[in-house]
Each structure stands twice: as C-alpha cells, then as structure tokens.
Write a structure and sequence with these properties.
By secondary structure, the chain is α+β, with helices and mostly antiparallel strands. The protein has one domain. It is 16% helix and 40% strand. The protein has one helix and six strands; from the N terminus they run αββββββ. The chain has a six-stranded antiparallel beta barrel with strand order 1-2-3-6-5-4. A hairpin with a 4-residue loop joins β5 and β6.
C-alpha cells in the first residue's frame, strides 16, 4: 500500500502542476486557463475568480480535449468546460 501511495504522489507532483485561472468573465461562462479559452457547459462557474488555483480533473491544460472538468481549489467546486472555446 505504501508503494502505491508514493507512486501516486510522485505522478501527481509531475503532472499536476500549479494552475491558476488567467481570466473569468463576470457571468462565469468564459474562462482562460494556461492562456487557453474554455466555456462553461452546464452552468456558470459561480464564485470563480481570476487567480484562483485549480486542478484539472479530466481534460488537458493546453485545451487539447473536447471537454474538461476543473476543480477550483479555493471554492471546492467543479465546473464542466468546453475546451479551446473561442
């Protein structure tokens, strides 16, 4: 069990990266992460602010995906996003 935990921790450190929201529109629908545009799919990302630290649960930080699920580490809420939305 200890070996698995160490492996998960190392992988998280290598691939997690510290990401912050570059931009969040006033209505919470348009976001920029890592200089890439994203669009909220189901609901606005309410309470999310520029500079909040995030973690990408599913998707890609370079918007090389169709959809992404992002966790806001400050608000502890997730948002489903359309990747590379211009």
């Amino acid at each position: 069990m200890r070996k698995i935990f160490v492996l998960i921790s190392v992988c998280g450190a290598l691939f997690g990266g510290d990401l912050k929201l570059d931009f969040v529109s006033d209505n919470g629908l348009n976001l920029m992460i890592n200089s890439k545009n994203y669009l909220a799919l189901e609901k606005p990302c309410a309470g999310w602010k520029t500079g909040d630290e995030i973690e990408i649960i599913d998707g890609d930080k370079n918007a090389k995906c169709l959809e992404a699920v992002v966790l806001n580490l400050k608000t502890k809420t997730t948002c489903r996003l359309l990747c590379d939305a211009k």
